[in-house]
Design goal:
Layout: E1 2-3, H1 6-16, E2 20-24, H2 33-43, E3 47-50, H3 63-68, E4 73-77, E5 89-92, E6 95-96, H4 101-105, E7 116-121, H5 129-138, E8 142-144, H6 164-169, E9 175-179, H7 182-189, E10 195-200, E11 205-208, H8 210-228, E12 232-238, H9 246-258, E13 262-268, H10 273-276, E14 284-287, H11 291-296, E15 305-306, H12 308-314, H13 320-323
Parallel strand pairs: 2-3, 2-4, 4-5, 7-8, 7-9, 9-10, 12-13, 12-14, 14-15
Antiparallel strand pairs: 1-6, 10-11
Helix pairs in contact: 8-12
């Protein structure tokens, strides 16, 4: 059901005269690895390699891996461009092809009380925004699609860490409708002070995100209180190509020292509990890599892992009531 644009890949390889290619697939598309490899090698003279490492987004490119195998091109599936790497790359955004009209039509009554709707999508369904917009407008709704702010590549595009455009329009709408999955819609729910609904074209489901949102906020409040009463902090810097935030980490260290807290910076590629527990004397970790790690992986960590905004709340520089809808905040937004 995913459109993998095989002909575009061949055209790009031939135009760039690439000879050695590293293919990167997110977890859900790795099953296509053998077929894609065979297709490329049949159609071109290029040699192909498949990255077996995890891939969590457009911020997670295998740049060092590509350099080590002496590749001259990366073909990255599943995400839109997130930043400009110093390496040749082709993005295959992998649209999901499904008939969306019956899905939105059967759920219109759940939006009945909402007049103004903010409409956004993950990149897999961005091509269906206008279809859904047209259906909503024919049912007397005013639809607002935010601009492509921050790291969003398209109008109406949201990422797991990027909701800037939605925040700018939230006072114009009564609720948000997300075309995508629970991951993207939950991030939006935690970033805006409006009702958020998910229309999942893949599973053909419709969800209200209120329950999940409240559950996560309660968890984060508990971790913030633990951080408030802690003295020793570890500050995490990711080595992933699009998640490195050295200046943010250094500023956090200075801030903690100002409050007479002990702090050091630790670098790592994948943030796992197995790595963190080795720092047995650290009470709390402050994450400057992907902000969703702190939220989605809460139950996997033995020690609190919080984001920058949550640290500011723990230090009483921000009030929780004023910032509870900004728990998910991309580190690059921090000054």
């Amino acid at each position: 059901m995913y459109i993998l644009e095989e002909q575009k890949i061949i055209t790009e390889i031939q135009a760039r005269k690439a000879r050695r290619i590293l293919i990167q697939l997110p977890e859900g598309l790795k099953k296509e690895a053998n077929r894609i490899t065979k297709y490329i090698e049949e159609k071109t003279s290029a040699e192909t390699f498949i990255s077996g490492e995890s891939c969590w987004g457009g911020c997670d490119l295998p740049l060092e891996e590509a350099k080590r195998i002496k590749a001259d091109l990366i073909v990255h599936f599943g995400h839109a461009p997130f930043f400009k790497p110093d390496f040749p790359i082709v993005y295959i955004e992998s649209r999901y092809d499904t008939e969306i009209k019956p899905i939105i039509g059967s759920n219109l009554e759940k939006l009945e009380i909402y007049k103004n709707i903010g409409l956004v999508s993950s990149v897999q369904h961005i091509h269906q925004l206008e279809i859904v917009k047209d259906i909503l407008e024919k049912n007397n709704k005013k639809v607002v699609i935010p601009g492509n702010k921050g790291r969003a590549f398209y109008k109406g595009h949201i990422l797991g860490c990027e909701y800037s455009g939605s925040k700018l329009i939230q006072n114009e709408v009564d609720c948000f409708l997300v075309l995508g999955n629970k991951f993207h819609s939950l991030g939006l729910a935690l970033s805006v002070d409006k009702k958020v609904f998910l229309l999942d074209p893949i599973n053909k489901e419709f969800h209200d995100l209120d329950f999940e949102k409240k559950k996560i906020i309660l968890r984060r409040m508990n971790l913030i209180e633990k951080a408030r009463n802690s003295h020793k902090f570890g500050i995490i810097i990711s080595m992933k190509s699009g998640q490195q935030n050295f200046s943010v980490a250094e500023n956090i260290k200075k801030k903690l020292k100002k409050y007479d807290k002990e702090a050091f910076i630790v670098t790592m590629n994948n943030v796992t509990n197995e790595q963190l527990v080795n720092f047995y004397d650290i009470e709390v970790f402050v994450n400057t890599s992907c902000p969703r790690i702190s939220v989605e992986d809460t139950d996997r960590f033995d020690k609190p892992v919080i984001n920058y905004t949550e640290l500011l709340i723990a230090l009483d520089e921000l009030k929780f009531d004023e910032n509870k809808h900004n728990i998910i905040i991309a580190p690059y937004e921090v000054e």
